[in-house]
Amino acid sequence: MYDAALWSKYNVGTKCKLVSNKCVKMFFGYKRSDSVTKMLFELRLPSFDTILLNSSIIFSNSWNVCSIQNKIIGHLAHLQSV
Questions:
Q1: Which residue pairs from 76-79 have beta carbons closer than 8 angstroms and sit at least 24 positions apart in sequence?
Q2: Is the model's pTM score more than 0.85?
């Protein structure tokens, strides 16, 4: 999930492949028919949507801190908001 905060556009097919968690099910010995929500709860893992939301919040906070401390990034942030 490297740089998940920068994933602004992805199609539904790509998201479905990531959300299905087939690899996690196979690795931990769950059946194909087992609920993804139940599996993630038992393994104490976050859902795909939670990872994307947390990543975008962390990125936004980091961007805001950098734009205050760095003049070049601050200028880019200003250009983006215009």
A1: none
A2: no
